[in-house]
Amino acid sequence: MRIAVYPGSFDPITYGHLDIIERAADLFDKVIVAVSVNSGKKPLFTIEERVEMITAECHHLKNVEVRHFRGLLVDFAVQNNARSIVRGLRAVSDFEYEFQMALTNRKLNAQLETIFLVSQPNYSFLSSSIVKEIASLGGDVSGFVSQNVANRLHNKYHR
Ligand code: ADP
After folding, report:
1. 7 C-alpha to ligand 1 centroid (Å)
2. What is the pLDDT of residues 142-152, one digit of tens each?
């Protein structure tokens, strides 16, 4: 069974993330969306909220599981019998950090392969941070996230 992990903060999940998840689900027998607890960033949504939102978005994908993880991604991958790490690449600006992470993870565990899926052009500008900024300013985020996520953003900023 080919198992991949797709790690990230997903604070919150956007259509850009969902596109990567759907495409990974096509390529692998099982995809584990791994929500990072200790990413260094101060998240807007709790780990439970982020897992809930992703689970709702991925309801139609039967080979996708959503979990949270602490500590090293390579350890989480091994514990879940995954051999691949999936990451999305938006722009050239993502490349340097992703390249560094991929090489570091390979150094930590040479059995794990990082696979990059290039973002769809219409989502290549999209990030959770941009979505949060728009939502915090009262803008319309309906083209970027689901209605459920948009409602939760509204509740965080405007209630
Ligand atoms: P992290 O804090 O680990 O970067 P993110 O939730 O921001 O977590 O991103 C998780 C993964 O999803 C990363 O590989 C990122 O490049 C990718 N990603 C984020 N937004 C998009 C998008 N709009 N299109 C494609 N990939 C994306």
Report:
1. 8
2. 999 999 999 99
